[in-house]
Structure formats: C-alpha cells, structure tokens
Amino acid sequence: VFNNLATGTFTIENSADLQGGAGTTPNVFPNYGLVRKTNNVNNTQFSQDASPNPGPVFNNSGMLDVATGRMLLLGGTNTGEFNVAPGARLEYQANYTHNLGADVTGAGTNIVDATLFLNTALSISNLTVATTGIIDGPGDLTDLNLLAAIGSSTFRGAGALIVNSNATFSVPNGPSLSRNVTNSGLTLIGSTLGPGSAKALIGQKVGSQVL
User: Fold this and answer.
1) Using one digit for the tens of pLDDT, what is the confidence trace for 153-162?
2) 1 and 35 in contact (C-beta within 8 Å)?
3) pLDDT per residue over 16-39, tens digit each?
C-alpha cells in the first residue's frame, strides 16, 4: 500500500511504470491528496509484475491531474476528481468504478478498454469506448462534447445516456446499446469509411421519440 495523504503531492515526471509486487497480496495506491502526471508525453502505467500477480489499483478520493501525456489505470475506485488536460489522455485498462462524489473534468481524452461502472451520474467531455469497453451501472452518463462508441463496445445498466445539445455521439461501427438515450445534440451512425449500425433494444428513448 502507498498512501498519498490529503497533504501529499505525488508528481510523476517520466513514463516509468507503477508496478505491483510479486505474490498474491493486492497492491493498492489510495490517494487522498494530489497525484499529477506532468513533463513527459509518454505513458505512465499501473501494471502487474507478472500475471496472475495483482497489479496496483488506484483508489482516489483526492485529485488525479493528468496535465501532460497519458495515464493508464489498472482498476480501482474514484470518489474524487479526475482532471484530464487538453492533449492528455486517461485510459481505463481494467475494470474501474466511479462512486458518489466522483467528477471528471478537462478537455483531454478518456478511453475505456474494460468495464467502467457508474454508481453515480457522470459528465465527460471527450470519451472513447473501445471495442472491448463497457459502460455499466445505475449512474447517468452525459456526453458534453464527443462520445465515440467503437466496434462492439457495450452500453448497458440502469443509467441513461444523455447527449447534450452541443455534443456529438459518434457510432461508426456496431456497439450494443441497452441504455435509455436522450439526444439533444448530434448522433452519427456510420462514417465516411463505411456503413454503421447500432444494436439498440426496442423501447429506448431518443429525444421525445420512443423507438
């Protein structure tokens, strides 16, 4: 366990891995203060020592500030703030949960490769759900600027998907969509590269229309 207390600042100035130790004991990085990625534009990655040894999970109730480069998480929970600056990237490479109090700010890119579980409503400016990515849980997800559903990505759970009036929901391929959708912005099915499709359950709401 590496405890970063409320008065602590943990600054990452390179692209070194934050690696879990050998053995079967879970490795945990609880952050109550400030964790900042800066200076280096490459990946800073939470990573396993060697499978099946557990990698370190990042449990945040403070602030994660991705000011520069890319931060790759390997699971955990969030009740604090994630800020992703323009040009920076935060990537969920293992299952991650946002609980009550969680907030995601900044115009940088957020990428979901595994299951992102929302126990609370969450608004994100720039989100890509990769082909292996899943959005799940009871919390609403609001698209503030751009939401891209890639390949066979999945949107499920009791929460709604809300596309703001100045936002775009891009569906270039064929995601599985079983959330209620309220669209007041622009939803694009397909792309200039070829036809697109969305596998939606009957009875979903799009704006004021029920399909």
Assistant:
1) 999 999 999 9
2) no
3) 889 887 777 889 999 999 999 999
Residue among 20, 84, 21 nearest 57 (CA): 20
| Measured distance CA(92)–CA(71) in Å, rounded | 9
Which ranges of the chain have pLDDT less than 70? 191-211
Distances (CA, A) of 41 to 81, 108, 207: 21, 13, 40
User: At 93, phi and psi to the nearest 5?
Assistant: -95, -5
* HEC string for 131-200: CCCEEECCCCEEEEEEEEECCCCEECCCCCEEECCCCEEEECCCCEECCCEEECCEEEECECCECCCCEE
Phi, psi of 29 (to 5 degrees): -115, 90
Q: How far is CA 137 from CA 106, 131, 179, 202, in A?
A: 23, 18, 10, 20
DSSP letters of 16-63? Answer: --EEPPSSSS-EEEEESSEEEE-S--SEEEEE-SSTTSPPEEEEESSE
Cis? peptide before 52, omega within 30° of 0: yes
Structure token pair of residue 96: 């991650």
pLDDT score, position 211: 39
Length of the chain: 211
- pLDDT of the residue at 184: 97
Tokens (6 digits) for 15: 């692209």
Q: How crowded is the C-beta side of 163, counted as CA atoms within 13 Å?
A: 22
